[in-house]
Structures are given as C-alpha cells and as structure tokens.
Hints:
globular, EC 3.5.1.88, metal ion binding, alpha+beta, two-stranded antiparallel ribbon, 30% helix, Peptide deformylase, Peptide Deformylase, iron, 174 residues
Amino acid sequence: xxxxxxxxxxxxxxxxxxxxxxxxxxxxxxxxxxxxxxxxxxxxxxxxxxxxxxxxxxxxxxxxxxxxxxxxxxxxxxxxxxxxxxxxxxxxxxxxxxxxxxxxxxxxxxxxxxxxxxxxxxxxxxxxxxxxxxxxxxxxxxxxxxxxxxxxxxxxxxxxxxxxxxxxxxxxxx
Length: 174
C-alpha cells in the first residue's frame, strides 16, 4: 500500500468528471488499498479517486468512530438511485480543502447502487453521516465540491484563500 499525494484546491483536476471503472481486477484492488492508506493517514473519513489525481469512479469511506472497529467501505461506479425529501445538515470538511469546514444541507438519506471491491453489484441504504459522506464523495466523482453548496461570496473567499496558498507553495518550491 502506498500513500498518495492529495490534490488540493484550486487544482482544476478536482473539477474533472471521473470515468466509470471498466474492470474490477488486481490493479483496481491495489488502488483501493492505496486510497484507504491515504485516507487513514490524512486522517479522513472518505476519499474519492480524483482526490489523488485518478479520474475513475471509485471512492472509499470509513465513518466509524475512533473507539470503534474500522469499517472500510468501497464504492465502485456509485449511483444515487433515490434521495429522501427529508434534509439534514452536517459540518463538512474535505481532505482537498484542508482545515476549512462549513455547514451543508443535503438529503438525510440516500440509496446508492454500486459495485463492491469484488465487483459484486450492491445497493446501500444510508442515513446520517454515512449518507452525507456518500453524497460528498460521489459529488467529487462528478467534479463538484462541498463549497459549491455555499453562497457565492463564501465560495469565492475560500477559492481565493487556497489560490493564494497554492501560489505561496509554488514560490517556496522554486
């Protein structure tokens, strides 16, 4: 397993739409292991392939609490097939937008059709934090970031801040 470097805002890669996975094979399994290694190392509770620069429809999650046993979940080619009318608000953060958090309102529950790590088709019904996290990571696969749910003013401030930080990192690297 390898920890991959995270793609950070304002990198345009984060706005790419990810391509469906054609084959579930050993190469994909190694990539999934790398995603888990990267996510746990960060530390985070979800990570999409595009966040490490791989535009494939793969995401990993683990919303278990620190004191609980790990519960790693893999979603390949996930599709939300239904959303509840009920809404829920969670404070969201993102490994690609470090140290920035904001309240985001989303459907309280979702049903997601996907392949698991073995390539078996599954349907997952999720609510609470798992539903929020699934929607957040599936958004990544579609080039959408959680800051897109904020007001234009807040979103523009975040992008400006991270653009300035990226410029400073680039200047230090020279």
